[in-house]
Amino acid sequence: MNWVLVILGGTVGAPLRYLTDRAVQSRHDSGFPWGTFTVNVVGCLVLGTLTGAATAGAASSHLQLLLGTGLCGALTTYSTFSYETLRLAESGARAQAALNAIASVTAGLGAAFVGVTVAQAIWA
Amino acid sequence: MTSPHPETVDEPAETTAPARRAPVWRGQGPAVAVVAVGGAAGASARYGAALLWPARAGGFPWTTFWVNVAGCFVIGVFMVLITEVWAPHPLVRPFFGTGVLGGFTTFSTYAVDIQRLIDEGHPRTALAYLAATLLAALAAVWAAVALTRRVSARWGTGREAS
Questions:
Q1: Name one GO biological process term (chain B) (predicted).
Q2: Could you read off the pLDDT of B74-88 as tens digits, one per residue?
Q3: What's the total number of domains in chain A?
Q4: Which residues from A are below 8 Å from B107, CB to CB?
Q5: Long-range Cβ contacts of B112-117 (<8 Å, 24+ apart)
C-alpha cells in the first residue's frame, strides 16, 4: 500500500513539473530557469503545509506518502536545479547562476516555513 | 541552437519550429507518459533509500543528502552523454533526466528538513545541511560534467560537429 501511494504520487508529480516548466519557460525569453524555480518553491509550500498538518494530527501517514514523498518529491528537483545552475555559470551568466542558487534556497525555505505556520494556524 | 535559453533538462525533445507558439500541451502525450513512468521509478528509489537508511530524529539528514548529491552527479554524466556524445531517442531525455532523476532528487524534502531541524532546536545542523547539500550538489554536477567530457574526448566518441 505504501509503495502504491509513493508510485501514484510520483506518477503525477513528475509530469506536473515537466508541464509547468514548459508552460513557464514558454512565457518569457530570459535564460533564468523560472520553471524549475516555480515548481521547487510551490513544492516546498505544499510539503510545508502537509508537514504542519501532520504535526497537528490532521494529515495521515498515507497522505504524507502520497502527497509528500510521492507528489512533492517528484514535483521538486535538486538535479535539474543544480544542472541549470551549472549551465548558467558555463554560459557566462555567473551572477544569474549565483542568484538562482541563493533565490531557490531562500524562497524554498521561506515557502516551507510559511506552509508549516499556516497549517499549524489552521489545524492546531 | 536557436533557443534563447541555456540548455535545460526539460527542453522539448523535438526541434521543429512552429510558425506560431503552440500550446505547451500539444504533442506532449508520449513525453508526459515517459516522464510519469520515470518519476514513479525515481520517487520509489528515493522512498526505498529512506526505508533502508531512516533518518535519525534531530540528526543530519544523510539519506536525502546522498540521494540529492548522487542524482546531481548522474544528471551531469547523463546530460553530457546525450547532448555531446550520443544522439539518443527523443524520449530518453524526458524519461531519465526529467522523470527518473527529477523524481529521485527532491528540493521540498530538503527545505522542510531544514525547517524541521530549526523547529526542533538544531539550528547548527540545519545550517550545515543547507550549505553542505547546496555545495556538494553543485560540485557533483560540475565534476560529473567535466569528468564525462574528459573521458569522452579521450575515447574520441564526441559527436562530430555538423
A1: cellular detoxification of fluoride
A2: 999 999 999 999 999
A3: 1
A4: 40, 43-44, 76-78, 81, 104, 108
A5: B112/A44, B112/A47, B112/A48, B112/A51, B112/A112, B112/A116, B113/B55, B113/B61, B113/B64, B114/A109, B114/A112, B115/A48, B115/A51, B115/A109, B115/A112, B115/A113, B115/A116, B116/A51, B117/B58, B117/B61
